[in-house]
């Protein structure tokens, strides 16, 4: 499969967030991380790719010979729905018309370690547990494009790595594409095959973590002075400080 994004513009009313965003073609079998400061357009990008937010201009083209769809995991799963965790994932499985949706749902939830609270209501789950259920809900349909907006924000380090490993393994096994918004630069550097750095609604850098995570790019995007080391083939970003002229205002 292949995802093409060219000249993408999107925003809210007259306020444009993404401004003529063009990416190098993204192909299946990879986990791609989206980095950038607050208000750089990360969430707007994944919502627009998911079709939740309407684009104002540009091209989004998803080519998949198996005609699979798009899966989207928001920042938080609503906790007020009167559904159990298992039911939430089962609904997604049935929507796909799977031959045995109950068995498929159980398999996916077991793989993600969710069997222990499958029969609990969403309102009884922690934020991290609801996030895991949302990921299971996406993965049960085996989409061509998996879009995840800060899926690790409510998870501990163990589960952050576990979930990203699961999404990456699924992308490799099914030649699908995972696109994940992350704030943790070093987590993205270690877990993602490719990184996209957004700055003021445009793509500033795209490539491997080693190509993208340079002191110059980090200073430009985050206004942080940093040293970048290479450890076991992966970049390791060590912040040194904001510097005397940096403004941390949001």
Q: Write the H/E string, N to C.
A: EEEEHEEHHHEHEHEEHHEE
Mean pLDDT across every amino acid position: 93
Going by helix content, strand content and strand pairing, the class is alpha/beta
Q: Please tally the helical runs, counting DSSP H or I stretches of 4 or more residues.
A: 8
The biggest beta sheet is recorded as:
6 strands, mixed
| Terminal residue distance | 37 Å
Low-pLDDT sequence parts: none
The order of strands across the largest sheet is 6-7-8-4-9-10
Percent of residues in helices: 25-40%
Share in β-strands: 25-35%
Kindly describe this structure.
By secondary structure, the chain is an alpha/beta fold. Helices cover 32% and strands 30% of the residues. It has helices at 42-50, 85-95, 101-111, 127-139, 157-174, 185-191, 209-212, 215-222, and strands at 2-12, 15-21, 26-27, 30-35, 57-63, 70-73, 145-149, 177-181, 194-199, 202-207, 225-231, 234-241. Helix 2 (85-95) crosses helix 3 (101-111) and helix 2 (85-95) packs parallel to helix 4. The radius of gyration is 18 Å and the shape is globular. The mean pLDDT is 93.
What would you say about this model in short?
With 250 residues, the protein is an alpha/beta fold.
